[in-house]
């Protein structure tokens, strides 16, 4: 069985139209069909968080959503976080500054999760940040540097002096 | 060009931070990674590629009666299905050189032949137009297995592996001194039975192999490689009957290694063989369930250990018999973990006599090998449990007991009549007692004891514990680096090392920048590519910073000397008055003129420059750093835990890792290594375990069952990086920093749990599960 | 871990969805997908047809009317978590949701999906049982109500005919001044609970317990009400000793055994968490805790 559908959606602000097998999950669609390999597939059963993308501004696990379900929606991936001129998003910059990544495999999911979280919680506590990323496994950092980066990014986004 | 000679060590770098070395600079690796522009294995694609799916055994042990691929082959989109008959000419997966004899019959075939020995063992390989189809076809392969009893306990008597072969390929024995005499004269003998659970690296990126044959150049390429590219290249070439120069391995970004990734696995060979035979690029990406079943496990050991001590608690002898659960086959490491465990068990203590027998035993589980701090996580747990038990028996404070036994600074370098990985153990440098004091001070041990007493008085179940460890790093024998300045002044550094995501590029660039006198951020670091450098020993055993870092230092020193020698006559100055700052050769005294850029010097040294006539052109040098001995970092872990009496849950409230690593090239990265290593140690202490049912079915095959610590499980972690004992064995004084964060976590948390429970010696097994703790709480209840 | 093939349907109305269910063999409904998608990926579920409810109109929404909270089946867990109306009227549900998965799964996961997946330790099912919820079920014959007590037929098996689907859950609200607590023990935050306990208490004017609800998740094949504990509580003056005695009722309940935890451990947890939940609920009923 290889039923396919043609879908249209907005990805990182761009209108995209493509054919997808109906059983293909959104992460494989973004990576394989659209070539946006920044979204990483770590478990394909919805636990590790590496494939997190924003759908209509909400962080979701792209391995737990079929590509056809994204039709008509707006998807933002890690490739869509920096500004048009290439300037890093404050979260991306903070991850560099605070050693918030080692191998970088969990990073796209961490960043997209935190984009939504910081939009809702502009001045979070450390504990709130930990809870927010508790659905994202990082095997390298031990998380402290990610938490520090998130708090620094929150300050930057608020316009506070670092 | 300087050639590939190795000269005497160039000048040692003075203590303290330099221009680039010792600075917490941001990483070269990060910009593409935070933008989603990395290139991990699954991101590699080639036109016309097909996808491989492996059919795996679903029984732990059995005779393979038949494999019927008829239905799978008939599925549209399926290119081929292979069973063992299709790869009969490919030898079993080899292991690296070792003096342990007799392991060959226990190696794993690429596809199971007449038996399956663990759930997850490859039986057939399906090649199809896409990954979904390949999985559909794999489901159609009918496998008939006649079940056999599964061997699941490595401490049970050995069973039959194959006719005439039992499940104990070897026993690793080491020792020195008169152990029996020591026990005969001992004031006390302390005996323990301790176990460490089966867990492993479980990197967030699963494995991947993308093989392509380029007929035009007769080259076989393997992408998605890591860790040991050159050894793997040589072995792939040998196993497939090709010259090594016709095989190239490429490492892109690597989503964590931790010892398990980058070993040569059956899937790597299947992909390469298929690319050659099917004439299409072949892509294999492991899924997470496969990762749990097929990628190396680690750690599982049971130790029966005895210590003989005098009345003051000084060690007279240790006698250890342990059983190492290797799983179903010998893999690329051979018996290395057993060797490491046996050789590293004595740790930081003076020990007059020692005897160890490491039983290397096969079971019907996933094969095992190294995982961050292999053999040390296990034996630090065992040794430090032993030290605590001695302290209890003799009623000596456990810290004081350790002090009495620590090797003193004056005894360094301290040779132990032991070898590890074929290298004699010589503890190269260290001030163990000083670091112990620093750690206790930093953790606030004295005040902590008081606050623990107060909290206990108000009903809380809290406790603290500590453990001392010695790591090993910088495994030789050699590694090389070639540094070239091109005619634009850009510096390229080509290394035989690999990266598993820890920041190798940045660290090597910092060392190069320091020695050469350029900015680190513009240096282009190339590693993990067999087509760019002929040899390399890879990224493992905390060796990269020591070995490749030292080679970088020497190569950059050589380039620097060449640049100064070339510039001096042109500037009409002697080389001795010149230095290099920000890529410009100028006077040491700070005068900005005359000067010459490295780009100008490189052009002077180009192949068309008359000045180079008769010489090898280029501002370039390749240096090889050689080392006969490993270097031994060390440290102390301190833990404060609180136990929920209602649930038995152990919460680690505070934790300290104090680690002397000789010199921190980049303190921020060292802290990152330690924090990440700690999280993995915490997993093994409290959360992570590969469990099996009584038939050998694995029970931990998803991230919902194999529990990796998340951000909410991490305690407040403090890291103390000490640089009091630089290694005398390399020009920068470096010791590896990759494994000290992991090493003693199980040991320290076990001690803290004992203390909280008020039951010395209560913890005998890792991981410490809440149900077990609840039973221990019951035992204490009136 | 790629799903096997299936035909995909995305109806726009409940009637269309029910009609598809009636017509198609081996069909599964896809709600938030946070449980079904992993089952598809692991190929432990093999539907021939997947009927996606995400484009069905009228299945989401939260209303509080005449003492009844009604939540549409496709309402996302995250919307429930953030609903001020629910926090006000049914704080037990808000508290339970902080334990449900993670930010990303709550953004997609639905209450109807949780109810129908019926994991023995699912927080929302435990809450539904604690609050005597009613499940609204649509089928070819129209709509019917199923009491939550009758909803689980067995382990992960809801009392639904193949052509039926859940459209909403109705919860009769407790008096405003009730005390509540949801407690659970999981190895890590966000994991399925090994055991969870929900407690609700109403005190009468004399400070005695007028009404009590005690529910355990993760112990039986489905969340279960501990009526013996409730009986022991009602009419009594709340004291720690009373709560201990009520909680002791939980130790005798036959408990599941799985690789995560043996039965005896679940029984111990059941008693401990029940006692703690009752104490917390009491503190809230008396205004001594937030």
TrEMBL record, chain A:
PROSITE patterns the UniProt entry points to: 2FE2S_FER_1, 2FE2S_FER_2
Domain of life of the source: Bacteria
Span of domain 2Fe-2S ferredoxin-type: 5-81
A Pfam family per the record: Fer2
Keyword terms of this UniProt record: 2Fe-2S, Iron, Iron-sulfur, Metal-binding, Oxidoreductase
Presence of keyword Oxidoreductase: yes
Gene3D superfamilies for this protein: 3.10.20.30, [2Fe-2S]-binding domain
Alphabetical list of CDD domains matching this protein: fer2 (cd00207)
Iron-sulfur as UniProt keyword: yes
InterPro entries per UniProt: 2Fe-2S-bd, 2Fe-2S-bd_dom_sf, 2Fe-2S_ferredoxin-like_sf, 2Fe-2S_ferredoxin-type, 2Fe2S_fd_BS, Beta-grasp_dom_sf, Diverse_Oxidoreductases
Protein name: (2Fe-2S)-binding protein
Organism: Roseomonas alba
Automatic annotation (TrEMBL), chain B:
PANTHER family: ALDEHYDE OXIDASE 1-RELATED, XANTHINE DEHYDROGENASE
Domain Aldehyde oxidase/xanthine dehydrogenase a/b hammerhead, first and last residues per copy: 35-149
Protein name: Xanthine dehydrogenase family protein molybdopterin-binding subunit
Keyword tRNA processing appears in the UniProt entry: no
Lineage: Bacteria, Pseudomonadati, Pseudomonadota, Alphaproteobacteria, Acetobacterales
Keywords, sorted A to Z: Molybdenum, Oxidoreductase
SMART domains found in the cross-reference section: Ald_Xan_dh_C (SM01008)
UniProtKB/TrEMBL annotation, chain C:
Keyword Oxidoreductase listed: yes
SUPFAM superfamilies: CO dehydrogenase flavoprotein C-terminal domain-like, FAD-binding/transporter-associated domain-like
SMART domains named among the record's database cross-references: CO_deh_flav_C
Pfam families per record: CO_deh_flav_C, FAD_binding_5
Keywords: FAD, Flavoprotein, Oxidoreductase
InterPro entries to which the protein is assigned, alphabetical: CO_DH_flav_C, CO_DH_flav_C_dom_sf, Diverse_Substr_Oxidored, FAD-bd_PCMH, FAD-bd_PCMH-like_sf, FAD-bd_PCMH_sub1, FAD-bd_PCMH_sub2, Mopterin_DH_FAD-bd
Presence of the UniProt keyword Oxidoreductase in the record: yes
Identification of the protein by name: Xanthine dehydrogenase family protein subunit M
Species of the source: Roseomonas alba
Ranges where the FAD-binding PCMH-type domain occurs: 1-176
């Amino acid at each position: 069985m290889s039923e396919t559908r043609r879908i249209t959606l907005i990805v990182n602000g761009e209108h995209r139209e493509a054919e997808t097998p109906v059983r293909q999950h959104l992460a494989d669609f973004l990576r394989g069909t659209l070539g946006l390999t920044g979204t990483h597939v770590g478990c394909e059963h919805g636990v590790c968080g590496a494939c997190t993308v924003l759908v209509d501004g909400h962080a979701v696990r792209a391995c737990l959503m079929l590509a056809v379900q994204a039709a008509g929606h707006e998807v933002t991936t890690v490739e869509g976080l920096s500004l048009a001129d290439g300037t890093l998003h404050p979260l991306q910059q903070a991850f560099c500054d605070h050693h918030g990544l080692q191998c970088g495999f969990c990073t796209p999911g961490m960043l997209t999760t935190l984009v939504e979280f910081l939009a809702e919680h502009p001045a979070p506590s450390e504990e709130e940040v930990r809870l927010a990323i508790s659905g994202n496994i990082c095997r390298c950092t031990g998380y402290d540097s990610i938490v520090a980066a998130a708090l620094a990014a929150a300050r930057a986004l608020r316009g506070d002096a670092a | 060009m300087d050639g590939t000679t190795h000269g005497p060590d160039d000048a040692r770098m003075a203590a303290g931070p330099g221009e680039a070395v010792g600075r917490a600079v941001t990483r070269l690796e990060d910009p593409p990674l935070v933008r989603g522009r990395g290139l991990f294995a699954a991101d590699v694609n080639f036109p016309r590629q097909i996808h491989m799916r492996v059919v795996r055994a679903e029984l732990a042990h059995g005779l393979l009666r038949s494999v019927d691929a008829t239905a799978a082959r008939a599925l549209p989109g399926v290119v081929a299905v292979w069973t063992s008959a299709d790869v009969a000419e490919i030898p079993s997966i080899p292991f690296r050189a070792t003096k342990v004899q007799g392991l060959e019959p226990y190696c794993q075939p690429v596809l199971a032949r007449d038996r399956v020995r663990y759930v997850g063992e490859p039986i057939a390989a399906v090649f199809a137009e896409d990954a979904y189809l390949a999985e559909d076809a794999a489901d159609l392969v009918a496998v008939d297995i006649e079940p056999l009893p599964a061997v699941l306990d490595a401490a049970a008597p050995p069973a039959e592996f194959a006719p005439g072969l039992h499940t104990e390929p070897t026993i690793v024995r080491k020792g020195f001194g008169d152990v029996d005499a020591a026990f005969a004269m001992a004031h006390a003998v302390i005996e323990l039975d301790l176990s460490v659970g089966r867990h492993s690296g479980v990197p967030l990126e699963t494995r991947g192999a993308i093989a392509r044959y380029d007929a035009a150049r007769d080259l076989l390429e393997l992408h998605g490689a890591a860790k040991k590219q050159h050894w793997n290249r040589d072995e792939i070439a040998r196993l497939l009957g090709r010259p090594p120069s016709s095989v190239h391995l490429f490492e892109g970004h690597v989503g964590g290694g931790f010892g398990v990734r980058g070993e040569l696995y059956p899937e790597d060979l299947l992909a390469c063989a298929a690319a050659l035979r099917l004439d299409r690029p072949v892509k294999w990406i492991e899924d997470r369930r496969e990762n749990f079943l097929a990628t190396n496990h680690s750690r599982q050991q049971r130790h029966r250990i005895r210590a003989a001590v005098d009345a003051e608690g000084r060690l007279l002898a240790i006698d250890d018999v342990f059983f190492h659960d290797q799983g179903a086959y010998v893999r690329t490491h051979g018996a290395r973990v057993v060797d490491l465990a046996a050789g590293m068990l004595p740790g930081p203590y003076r020990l007059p006599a020692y005897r160890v027998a490491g039983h290397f035993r096969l079971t019907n589980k996933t094969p095992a090998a190294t995982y961050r701090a292999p053999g040390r996580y296990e034996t630090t747990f065992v040794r430090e449990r032993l030290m605590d038990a001695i302290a209890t028996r003799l009623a000596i404070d456990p810290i004081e007991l350790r002090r009495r036994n620590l090797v003193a600074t004056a005894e360094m370098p301290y040779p132990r009549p032991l070898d590890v990985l074929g290298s004699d153990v010589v503890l190269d440098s260290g001030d163990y007692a000083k670091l112990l004091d620093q750690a206790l001070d930093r953790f606030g041990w004295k005040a902590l004891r008081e606050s623990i007493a107060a909290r206990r008085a108000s009903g809380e179940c809290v406790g603290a514990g500590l453990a001392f460890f010695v790591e090993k790093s910088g495994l030789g024998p050699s590694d090389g680096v070639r540094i070239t300045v091109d005619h634009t002044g850009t510096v390229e550094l080509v290394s035989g090392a690999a990266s598993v995501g820890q920041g190798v590029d940045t660290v090597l660039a910092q060392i190069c920048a320091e020695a050469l006198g350029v900015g680190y951020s513009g240096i282009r670091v190339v590693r993990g590519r067999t087509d760019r450098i002929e040899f390399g020993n890879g990224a493992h055993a905390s060796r990269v910073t020591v070995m490749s870092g030292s080679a970088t230092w020497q190569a950059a020193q050589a380039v620097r000397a060449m640049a100064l020698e070339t510039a001096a006559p042109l500037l009409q100055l002697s080389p001795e008055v010149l230095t290099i700052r920000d890529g410009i050769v100028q006077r040491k005294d700070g005068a900005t003129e005359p000067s010459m850029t490295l780009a100008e010097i490189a052009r002077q040294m180009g192949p068309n420059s008359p000045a180079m006539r008769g010489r090898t052109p280029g501002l370039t040098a390749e240096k090889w750093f050689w080392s006969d001995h490993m270097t031994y970092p060390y440290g102390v872990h301190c833990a404060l835990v609180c136990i929920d009496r209602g649930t038995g849950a152990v919460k680690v409230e505070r934790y300290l890792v104090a680690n002397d690593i000789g010199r921190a090239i980049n303190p921020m990265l060292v802290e990152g290594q330690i924090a990440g290593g700690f999280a993995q140690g915490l997993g093994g202490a409290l959360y992570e375990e590969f469990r099996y049912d009584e038939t050998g079915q694995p029970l931990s095959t998803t991230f919902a069952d194999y529990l990796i610590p998340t951000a909410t499980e991490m305690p407040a972690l403090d890291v103390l990086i000490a640089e009091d004992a630089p290694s005398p064995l390399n020009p920068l004084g470096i010791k590896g920093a990759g494994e000290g964060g992991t090493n003693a976590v199980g040991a320290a948390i076990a001690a803290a749990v004992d203390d909280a429970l008020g039951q010395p010696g209560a913890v005998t097994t890792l991981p410490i599960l809440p149900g077990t703790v609840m039973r221990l709480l019951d035992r204490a209840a009136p | 871990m790629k799903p096997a093939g299936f035909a995909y349907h995305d109806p726009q109305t409940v009637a269309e969805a029910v009609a598809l269910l009636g017509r198609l063999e081996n069909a599964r409904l896809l709600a938030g997908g946070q449980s079904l998608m992993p089952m598809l990926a692991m190929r432990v579920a093999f539907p021939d047809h997947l009927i996606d409810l995400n484009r069905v109109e009228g299945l989401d929404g939260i209303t509080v009317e005449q003492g009844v909270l009604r939540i549409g089946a496709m309402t996302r867990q995250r919307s429930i978590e953030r609903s001020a109306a629910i926090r006000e009227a049914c704080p037990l549900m808000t508290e339970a949701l902080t334990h449900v998965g993670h930010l990303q799964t709550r953004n997609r996961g639905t209450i109807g999906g949780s109810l129908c997946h019926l994991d023995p330790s699912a927080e929302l099912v435990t809450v539904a049982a604690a609050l005597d919820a009613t499940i609204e079920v649509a089928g070819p014959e129209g709509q019917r109500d199923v009491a939550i007590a009758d909803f689980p037929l067995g382990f992960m098996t809801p009392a639904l005919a193949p052509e039926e689907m859940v459209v909403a859950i109705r919860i009769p609200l407790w008096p405003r001044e009730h005390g509540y607590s949801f407690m659970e023990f999981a190895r890590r935050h966000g994991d399925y609970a090994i055991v969870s306990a929900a407690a609700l208490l109403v005190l009468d004017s004399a400070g005695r317990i007028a009404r009590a609800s005690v529910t355990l998740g993760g112990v039986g094949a489905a969340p279960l009400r501990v009526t013996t504990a409730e009986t022991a509580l009602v009419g009594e003056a709340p004291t720690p000793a009373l709560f201990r005695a009520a909680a002791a009722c939980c130790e005798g309940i036959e408990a599941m055994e799985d690789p995560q935890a043996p039965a005896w451990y679940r029984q111990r947890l059941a008693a401990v968490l029940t006692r703690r939940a009752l104490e917390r609920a009491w503190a809230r009923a008396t205004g001594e805790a937030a």
